[in-house]
Amino acid sequence: MPKNEFTCDCNVIHKDVVDNTIKNMPNEDLFNKLAEFFKILGDTTRVKILFALDQNEMCVCDIANVLGMSKSSISHQLGTLRRSGIVKCRKSGKEVFYMLDDEHVKQVFEIGVQHIEHRR
Amino acid sequence: MPKNEFTCDCNVIHKDVVDNTIKNMPNEDLFNKLAEFFKILGDTTRVKILFALDQNEMCVCDIANVLGMSKSSISHQLGTLRRSGIVKCRKSGKEVFYMLDDEHVKQVFEIGVQHIEHRR
DNA sequence: TTGACAGTTGAATAAGTATTCACATATAAT
DNA sequence: ATTATATGTGAATACTTATTCAACTGTCAA
To answer: CB–CB of A112 and B115 under 8 A?
Structure first.
């Protein structure tokens, strides 16, 4: 994590480009949220969960079975995804059904998938 | 990381959904690449670098100045981004100019930015 | 009320990673 | 050749985090 503006150990080579870029940089908050968003997507287990939920809403046990993992592990990851606004859920009796939070999330995820499929 | 199909500790509740989802799951390789791609984007420093490169190609020192960080740190991150096919570079004398690798990367990144800006 | 099952959660361990430091390489200018 | 500058990189440290384990809550059925 950057500490302050004096951490840099070299000269400005292209002053105009540097000045202009600094002028256009959004605030720290946007970068933190953006990185956090991508970071949440950047885990094999979570990506698999999202791929499953991109097709059907599913309960915890079903997801655990699809991925061959423990309920606890899946529940932890779903909690992470929910707190990040990437999935939401609805309760029905003993079961909790999870789904992608909105169309926007769905779109970003699917473009990511296309990006990878496009590259091989 | 999942070990095998017997790691799951609960019953299948909705057999049709589970079977169908398993049938549609891509191979492990796609999930790993997809997660890796998002993971690389999921760091505040790298997101800032990409935001800068989304406007201009820039050399290492200029990026270090824009972010207020050391050359070494920036160089390490640029190496990570380059090995992942997210940025590319061209040499010019002593300097190395970095830029986003292609339009696809640019698009995914910008949609991510829109996603965050949309949410506040 | 008792048992069974779906899901959640805190703590601990194990694995991964960003930055720093010290040094190496490469190019240009004197 | 020598110096200065731009960049790359291996190792170490500090920090983060995914999964497991063990407990817990809540709901349904007998």
So the answer is: no
